[in-house]
């Protein structure tokens, strides 16, 4: 069973003038296969910075700490190597990939991760079944990745990747944002299917508690000003729903 270990992670963002602005101030978090973690915090607290740092985005500079997947240093891997090692990141703002269809994109990603192309026959069926489960039109497979996708289509596409690529650990950054209630339910069902396999560790990053009505996390971490300030079980999400982040912000300094 896989484990992602984030130890005292410190990260600065590279500003256009070349300066470094410290964002993550020592993050400690362990996500094991089969576990579902919710990382919740106010806007600007550094949640996406954490996700991008794990994924290897060049704009973020690691200034301290470590990230290990099954004991192997993730931070020294290229972005591709991280994906092949079994890490998956669903971005808050997915990028368009003009000229590449959903079907081709998924097949290429699957091939890269598995080290061999999926069998053509079974793969087409798997793709179709995944789309059906997410209530997507089969024609969607021929569209270019994220080009003109609605918010809901982008998120469904991410969950489709998650289901087909079967990562060891997945980080979902605000997968709930911009979804109407039906899309939220469909996307949550997809996440719950992945969860039920027991083979993927899930880190759900979210600002709002509403997705947690559909996906019950095993652990909740409150994230403020670049670090985890409180941890608990699902009851902590309910407390946040009632009380908000206000009381954590006092003493955290000016909002970034
Ligand atoms: P969250 O996802 O919790 O809303 P972010 O990680 O997006 O927070 O941002 C954390 C802080 O880092 C914010 O103050 C944000 O403005 C800053 N930041 C993040 N990325 C950049 C960037 N590329 N350039 C400048 N500032 C950034
Ligand atoms: Mg934000
Ligand atoms: Mg964010």
From TrEMBL:
Pfam family, one: ABC_tran
InterPro entries: AAA+_ATPase, ABC_transporter-like_ATP-bd, FeS-cluster_ATPase_SufC, P-loop_NTPase
Protein's UniProt keywords contain RNA-binding: no
Keyword Secreted on entry: no
GO MF assignments: ATP binding; ATP hydrolysis activity
Keyword annotations of the record: ATP-binding, Nucleotide-binding
Coiled-coil portions: none
NCBIfam families: sufC
Similarity comment: Belongs to the ABC transporter superfamily. Ycf16 family.
Name recorded for this polypeptide: ABC transporter ATP-binding protein
Organism: Phytohabitans rumicis
Organism ancestry: Bacteria, Bacillati, Actinomycetota, Actinomycetes, Micromonosporales
């Amino acid at each position: 069973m896989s484990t992602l270990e984030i130890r005292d992670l410190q990260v600065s963002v590279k500003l256009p003038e070349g300066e470094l602005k410290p964002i993550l101030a020592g993050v400690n978090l362990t996500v094991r296969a089969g576990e579902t973690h919710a990382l919740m915090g106010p806007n600007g607290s550094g949640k996406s910075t954490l996700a991008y740092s794990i994924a290897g985005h060049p704009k973020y500079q690691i200034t301290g700490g470590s990230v290990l997947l099954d004991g192997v240093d993730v931070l020294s891997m290229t972005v591709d190597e991280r994906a092949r090692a079994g890490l998956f990141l669903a971005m808050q703002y997915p990028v368009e990939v003009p000229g590449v269809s959903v079907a081709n994109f998924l097949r290429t990603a699957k091939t890269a991760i598995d080290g061999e192309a999926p069998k053509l026959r079974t793969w087409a069926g798997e793709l179709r079944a995944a789309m059906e489960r997410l209530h997507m039109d089969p024609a969607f497979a021929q569209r270019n990745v994220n080009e003109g996708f609605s918010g809901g289509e982008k998120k469904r596409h991410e969950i489709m990747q998650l289901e087909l690529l079967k990562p060891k650990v997945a980080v979902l950054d605000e997968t709930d944002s911009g979804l109407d209630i039906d899309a939220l339910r469909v996307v949550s069902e997809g996440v719950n299917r992945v969860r039920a396999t027991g083979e993927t560790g899930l880190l759900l990053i979210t600002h709002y508690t509403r997705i947690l009505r559909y996906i019950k996390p095993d652990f909740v971490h409150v994230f403020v000003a670049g670090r985890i300030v409180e941890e608990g079980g699902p009851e902590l999400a309910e407390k946040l729903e009632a009380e908000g982040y206000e009381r954590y912000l006092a003493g955290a300094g000016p909002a970034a």
